Amino acid sequence: xxxxxxxxxxxxxxxxxxxxxxxxxxxxxxxxxxxxxIQFEPLHDxxxxxxxxxxxxxxxxxxxxxxxxxxxxxxxxxxxEVDLQTxxxxxxxxxxxxxxxxxxxxxxLGLGEDVEVTLDGCRRxxxxxxxxxxVPLRPLLDSCLAEARPVDPEYLGGMYRAVGKMLTDQGLAxxxxxxxxxxxxxxxLLQFTESPLPPKPAAxxxxxxxxxxxxxxxxxxxxxxxxxxYLRLRHxxxxxxxxxxxxxxxxxxxxxxxxxxxxxxxxxxxVVRCYRHRGGVWYGGRLAVRPEFRSGVxxxxxxxxxxxxxxxxxxxxxxxxxxxxxxxxxxxQRIGWVRLGKPFLLQGKKHxxxxxxxxxxxx
Length: 363
Fold this sequence. Notes:
By secondary structure, the chain is α/β, with parallel strands linked by helices. It has helices spanning 14-32, 48-54, 69-74, 77-80, 84-98, 115-128, 153-169, 181-184, 224-241, 299-313, 329-334, and strands at residues 4-6, 36-39, 59-61, 103-109, 130-136, 216-220, 258-264, 267-278, 281-289, 319-325, 337-346, 349-356.
């Protein structure tokens, strides 16, 4: 099992149902560390989206079922009581908290929908960062739709291709979701119409001198060009390679962060940053090393050592912490860091807070 999806019927107040699923998600995350998607209707309390995220929910589904008003009134009349504008407002609010590609909506084809209305709704959703999961109606035996005609394959294929192009245009992809229907991909062939990402350029071989630690220069970035290259490497690792962030890994801390570079023969090999959290508490993070420099000298360790050196030299820094991906905990422990608290999910990945003792007498 790699992820979990939680859904339920509609409660008298949708907010209550979402909170119930959020508490369930929190229990699952605490026990397993798995990413969890929950599915619910548009929420009344806009602040609830952030509460759900803080409970450990990584992805959400807000399923409109159809963008065609006539179909909505006929097929899901309860959902039709919530107008489409409210759904789009909910999409925007959820994306603002969970991020692009972490919010999805089901769109069922074969209900007599208007093609252009359906495509326009999918286009609006994708522009907001919402993945429209286009699926065919599947008539079930002994149900009220048992005699419904299956969706025409030509029509379905055309809709898949049209929506797939929208996803590509908006940088959305099934593989960038961490849990739920989009990640599962079992009910739809839409993911096969997403245009593949362009191939990565061939890696440039690392210079032979990388085998010698003395050949690695580790220092703070000094020029705008160096900072831009430092940000590009972070994007390569955390967005393109690992998919932790769907669009960008930049955040508010970058404004005042201390960007640290590792250079081999003048070429950027790795990066890390330090930033002040509050008071005398500083954090290290965004540790990234180019794939071709991950053997030989441990450039990641050199970057962390430099960050610690800079923090020790700053008398205003009283505590130095780091938020690290869980698979890197042993690496940090080997270079003198200790774990604080329990692991938690961040951007759908298991993380751990670590601490480095800066001076004798520090707690």
